[in-house]
Write a structure and sequence with these properties.
By secondary structure, the protein is an alpha+beta fold. The chain has seven helices and 19 strands. The strands form five sheets. Strands 11, 12, 13, 14, 15, 18 and 19 form a seven-stranded mixed sheet that branches. The protein has a five-stranded mixed sheet with strand order 2-3-9-4-5, with helices on one face. It has a three-stranded antiparallel sheet with strand order 6-7-8, with no helix packed on it.
């Protein structure tokens, strides 16, 4: 059978929250099969944990925040995306403040952290959400959908009329049975227009944003030394975000995602719509010798040492 995964041992990092600007210590710790992804606020006493769950999303302004009562954990999407990319089903994430550190603005540092300690396969079967019929949501011109597919693929259309954005691809579609998340997606960084930064900071967002954790764009070009990591880095970061938002469903998807101008709010709307439609999905597990299984989803993910 395809088995659930956690990590081999604890691993630690220190960074800043991109929105709060506050220093944060983060520890990733192994968790038992069936426990899922759990965030723990070590700076709080008493009830201090939040389960990674689409229904726990409480804020989607420029990032995804999950909450349990008064306990908030912000900017979870890049870490959740990395966990999907490595097939991690169970993990405890300890944080010394309310925001996951932004690191370099991508999922790659989280991938590197986990790879440094290795992945552990557990005895319990891995579960997937298999899409049985199309689910689609919209907000204005933006749309997001999930459709049946044998495996997992994701497509995204990025819409922005700007001289810099117009020089780069605005559509990407990746089939993760044939494409490595780690090599092709994990390094795609957050990005933004420099002229919009003061407006974001005026509402206490992006207080920790810098060229060390985002791609900065002026009127004419990318201002980061070295430029972009991928020619299609902008649209790939949107895919990275969507994957992280959808992994809050608690299990990897067997199906196809398509987003058009969708962001964190619409991604979560799609996840919640799916959960309400019992006939649109079911939970499945697979044996390694099954002929029609999504084993290819994991082929390009990290190998277990």
């Amino acid at each position: 059978m395809l088995r659930q995964r956690t990590i081999n041992g604890p691993v630690h990092a220190i960074g800043i929250g991109v929105h709060s600007g506050a220093k944060v210590r983060m520890s990733l710790r192994p968790a038992q099969a069936g426990s899922g992804i759990q965030f723990v606020r070590s700076d709080l006493e008493g009830l201090n944990s939040v389960r990674a769950c689409a229904e726990s999303v409480s804020d989607t302004a420029l990032s995804t925040t999950i909450s349990q009562g008064p306990i908030n954990v912000a900017t979870v999407e890049h870490l959740m995306s990395a966990l999907w990319g490595l097939g991690i089903d169970n993990l405890v994430i300890e944080l010394s403040s309310e925001e996951v550190p932004i690191m370099d603005g991508s999922a790659a540092p989280f991938v590197d952290m986990i790879n440094s300690v290795g992945i552990l396969e557990l005895d319990e079967a891995k579960q997937f959400i298999r899409i049985n019929r199309e689910i689609s949501v919209s907000q204005g011109e933006a749309t997001a959908s999930l459709k049946p597919y044998s495996g997992f693929k994701a497509g995204y259309t990025f819409v922005a009329n700007h001289p810099v954005f117009n020089r780069y691809p605005k559509y990407a579609e990746l089939d993760f049975g044939a494409t490595s998340y780690e090599a092709s997606v994990s390094g795609a960084r957050s990005f933004g227009l420099l002229k919009e930064l003061p407006q974001a900071q005026a509402i206490n967002k992006c207080l920790g944003s810098s060229l060390e954790n985002a791609v900065g764009i002026d009127d004419d070009d990318v201002v980061n030394e070295g430029g972009l990591r991928y020619h299609d880095e902008f649209v790939k970061h949107k895919l990275l975000d969507a994957i992280g938002d959808l992994y809050l469903l608690g299990r990897p998807i067997v199906g196809a995602f398509e987003g058009y101008m969708s962001g964190h709010a619409l991604n979560n709307k799609l996840a919640r719509a799916l959960l309400r439609c019992d006939d649109a999905w079911d939970v499945v597990s697979y044996n390694l010798d099954d002929q029609a299984n999504p084993q290819e989803i994991l082929i390009k993910q990290a190998a277990v040492e």
